[in-house]
Design a protein that fits this description.
- The chain has three helices and three strands; from the N terminus they run E-H-E-E-H-H.
- It has 126 residues and is an alpha+beta fold.
- It has two domains: 54 residues, no CATH class; 42 residues.
- It has a three-stranded antiparallel sheet, with no helix packed on it.
- A hairpin with a 5-residue loop joins strand 2 and strand 3.
- The two termini are 25 Å apart.
């Protein structure tokens, strides 16, 4: 197996793999837009086994003073989200991510348009 940088000539093969196995799960990303790096793993004949990359994603992080009423905190949340959406759009991104531990706030965010991700978000410290 070999790993190498993704080339524009790889896109059609990657699209075929995506359409065959993942079309109903997620949209094929543009690995050349807002990715730190994209690469493919190939067999010894340079046939693509896998492709992937490291994408930049905007993430909203909020620290809230719980001494204030829920109503006040919700209003502050909405103001921060308005500003966050504005910044996200102006930097050319189409999604804003938030990772929520509190189910009540998660429901509040869903009421205003946030969607659940397919799968569970996981991370690794590097």
């Amino acid at each position: 197996m070999n790993i190498r940088e993704l080339k524009s000539t790889d896109v059609n093969v990657i699209r075929e793999i995506h359409d065959k196995y993942f079309k109903t799960e997620f949209e094929l990303p543009d690995f050349f837009d807002k990715f730190l790096c994209a690469f493919v793993v190939t067999d010894s004949n340079d046939i693509i086994i896998s492709s992937g990359g490291v994408r930049l994603i905007p993430e909203s992080i909020l620290i809230t003073n719980k001494d204030f009423s829920v109503r006040t905190r919700r209003e502050a949340l909405y103001r921060i989200l308005d500003a966050s959406v504005y910044v996200t759009k102006n930097h050319g991104y189409s999604q804003l991510h938030a990772f929520i531990q509190d189910d009540i706030w998660k429901q509040q965010l869903k009421k205003i348009g946030f969607n659940s991700c397919k799968g569970d978000a996981i991370y690794i410290d590097v």
